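Quick start: what a row looks like.
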Amino acid sequence: MAEDQFGGNAAYQNILTRTSVRRYADARVTDAEQKALLRAAMSAPTGVNRQPWEFVVIDDPAVLQALADALPYAKMAAKAPMAIAVCGNRERFLAGDDATLWEQDLSAASENILLAAHAIGLGGVWTCLYPHADRMASASAILGLPEEVVPFSLLPVGHPLTQQKPMDKWHPERIHHNKF
């Protein structure tokens, strides 16, 4: 992948080789693996250290199927051994100009889950709930979320069924220095 001086760095390679995994082997995600993913999520940067996140770990096949049936881009959840719903708690959102920082915080937490999954031999895929009202309403109802909790993303996770080759997304023509 990286043919540069950082190519031997494990963290860097983990970032470059992560792929979206939508097909999973028939193997359980262990409690230790789940905890590792959630610790990684909660290590994400967060504006003013508000940590506006809440996480719902879903490993009940009936709930995973209900989410797959209700969400147009989360069909793979039905075959995943687990998923994590990344949610925001309005009680910890900031106000004023910083009112939308929670979106960045939850994006960072979601990406940390996916990177951690890849690092420990799992795979996952980001499916979008927020800002789509219909998806958010469906996820809220299925997961029994209280009114102050906003569903942001659903991340099906499991052991990859096959190895995938990462896409090369390097486009140096999109890099600008000092000014556009």
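That is the whole record. The first strand starts at residue 53 and ends at 58. The longest helix spans residues 101-119.
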